[in-house]
């Protein structure tokens, strides 16, 4: 579906951000109504009837948004939640495509990582930005805007606001990381998040990039987080894969061995 959506995004150019916002609105409608979600994902229901229903839900939306949504609901889904996830996935890509059209996609990646890095030692702030139970979306967005301080690209600001306004059961920083992976995917790169006790030198970064590029067979974007609690070594995460060589990790492993 993503590949079929790309020509639509290229044709929309900068306006693909509007398509993304309209698809996010559909995500919200699906999340707020179990009956609607089950009906649109029901494999036994008539595809054209579902297409008419989703067009009604998206009344007033761009014709491209409606067409994409109709193609999605005509498809077969093993679970109704899968449909919602697919709509959200395309919404993220639509906003990123708008940044690609303006040549700011790399800036978006940098902006999102900058926010995540700024929150590394701010546990209470991270909790508030992810807490849909005790704070309002408006309050969380105001807090985020204070953190951004007007220094983010429009696409990065839109995606970060979405991540805190509608966390959908995820942590705010987790969603930023997921979007960062989508940026890397669009740039045909892997993202490696490296946690170190100190800043890496230019030579160290180049050496690590070379090792990871040989291991993964494609260019790698290094995002380095400095954490003084890491006593030595590096923690490297590429997608779901973690290579942890920190001193703390080795100490924890030694304790487990002694306890066994």
From TrEMBL:
UniProt subcellular location: Cell membrane; Membrane
GO cellular component: plasma membrane; proton-transporting ATP synthase complex
Keyword annotations: ATP synthesis, Cell membrane, CF(1), Hydrogen ion transport, Ion transport, Membrane, Transport
Annotated InterPro entries: ATPase_OSCP/d_CS, ATPase_OSCP/dsu
Recorded topology in the membrane: Peripheral membrane protein
One Pfam family here: OSCP
Domain of life: Bacteria
A single MF term (Gene Ontology): proton-transporting ATP synthase activity, rotational mechanism
Principal place of residence: membrane
UniProt family annotation: Belongs to the ATPase delta chain family.
HAMAP family the UniProt entry points to: ATP_synth_delta_bact
Role summary: This protein is part of the stalk that links CF(0) to CF(1). It either transmits conformational changes from CF(0) to CF(1) or is implicated in proton conduction. F(1)F(0) ATP synthase produces ATP from ADP in the presence of a proton or sodium gradient. F-type ATPases consist of two structural domains, F(1) containing the extramembraneous catalytic core and F(0) containing the membrane proton channel, linked together by a central stalk and a peripheral stalk. During catalysis, ATP synthesis in the catalytic domain of F(1) is coupled via a rotary mechanism of the central stalk subunits to proton translocation.
Protein's name in the database: ATP synthase subunit delta
Species in which this protein is naturally found: Cellulomonas cellasea DSM 20118
Taxon lineage: Bacteria, Bacillati, Actinomycetota, Actinomycetes, Micrococcales
């Amino acid at each position: 579906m993503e590949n079929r959506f790309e020509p639509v995004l290229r044709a929309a150019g900068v306006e693909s951000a509007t398509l993304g916002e309209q698809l996010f609105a559909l995500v919200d409608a699906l999340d707020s109504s179990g009956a609607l979600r089950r009906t649109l994902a029901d494999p036994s229901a008539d595809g054209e009837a579902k297409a008419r229903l989703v067009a009604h839900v998206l009344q007033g939306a761009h014709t491209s948004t409606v067409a994409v949504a109709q193609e999605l609901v005509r498809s077969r889904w093993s679970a109704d939640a899968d449909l919602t996830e697919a709509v959200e996935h395309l919404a993220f890509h639509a906003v990123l495509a708008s940044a690609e059209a303006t040549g700011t996609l790399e800036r978006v990646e940098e902006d999102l990582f900058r926010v995540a890095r700024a929150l590394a030692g701010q546990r209470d702030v991270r909790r508030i930005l992810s807490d849909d139970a005790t704070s309002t979306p408006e309050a969380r967005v105001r807090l985020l805007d204070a953190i951004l301080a007007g220094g983010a690209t429009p696409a990065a600001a839109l995606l970060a606001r979405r991540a805190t306004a509608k966390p959908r059961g995820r942590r705010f920083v987790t969603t930023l990381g997921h979007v960062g992976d989508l940026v890397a995917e669009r740039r045909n790169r892997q993202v490696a998040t490296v946690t170190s006790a100190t800043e890496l030198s230019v030579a160290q970064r180049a050496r690590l990039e070379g090792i990871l590029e040989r291991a993964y067979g494609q260019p790698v974007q290094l995002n380095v987080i400095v954490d003084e609690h890491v006593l030595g070594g590096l923690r490297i995460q590429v997608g779901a894969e973690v290579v942890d060589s920190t001193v703390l990790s080795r100490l924890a492993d030694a304790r487990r061995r002694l306890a066994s």
